[in-house]
Predict the 3D structure of the following.
Amino acid sequence: MVKITDVARHAGVSPSTVSYALSGKRSISEETRQRVEESIRELGYRPHAGARALASSRSNVLALVVPLRAGIHVPVVMRFAVSVVTAARRHDHDVLLLTQEEGEDGLRRVADTALVDALIVMDVQLHDARLPLLRALDRPSVLIGFPAEPAGLTCIDLDFKAAGELCVEHLAALGHRVIGLVGSPPEVYVRETGFAQRVVQGFTAAADRNGISSSVHPCEADPAAARQVAERLLRERPALTGVVVHNEPVLEPLIDAFESLGLRVPGDLSVTAICPDELAGRVRVPVTSIAIPADEVGAGSVELLMKKLGGTPVPEATLLPPRLTVRASTQPRP
């Protein structure tokens, strides 16, 4: 293992000069700094994480706070996590993943130590109890999601309200006049999770604007619940010809349920979804969908944090516009 003394010997300087070049605590000439940096690269020296943290008051670790609550679809959450980790490594940072439902106590426990330099927080609720603490912390944070009052915070996410609207506008343009939203599990709405609430807002607003009869149906993430929701929709709305799905695990079971009840997709029923592209494309009937841009949002959250750590101003709100891909599951109203 290469030591700081090896770097010093190679660069022809003292070990303390190497330390100053790494920490920036004392000024050294540009020529000396470049010589030290060249020796570090040639020898492959990497500072010990603990020593580096003591020297610079930085740990080069980000916390990703993603409590695995009931109703969360873990595969999609993990796509965000992988994107955050990949982007963090490009900035020579590691990621500490916090998955327990600890609320404010968990955030304070991490923030009050030297474990992390900054935090990325997911599963944001409209009236999230963690927000006052995040606003008061001396460590920067970025939220993947938007609370009801985002002032004083840095937030990034897909524009889920616009996504709900765009799905309805697509169905409206095809002539559909009776539609339903098969949404997230009930507990997600009970918690007032921001993204789920905003899909409902966009769906309802666009339906009203287009004079479309609509209804919203939370659905547990299992095939039996999908069958029950399909039966209820057809019982309550026999003229139903369009459905928006915002619940990844039930997308294919829901299509199967409607077809077993006598509705062909897309011949009798057009289906759109808000879900990852790969899921929409591999369903038996490829589904017209708005992608969940997990890679873009995860990487974007890290870039925002890096700027904040460097003292660069960043926008409070970053909303990614939805992109709809038309596939085989939608067609004009029969």
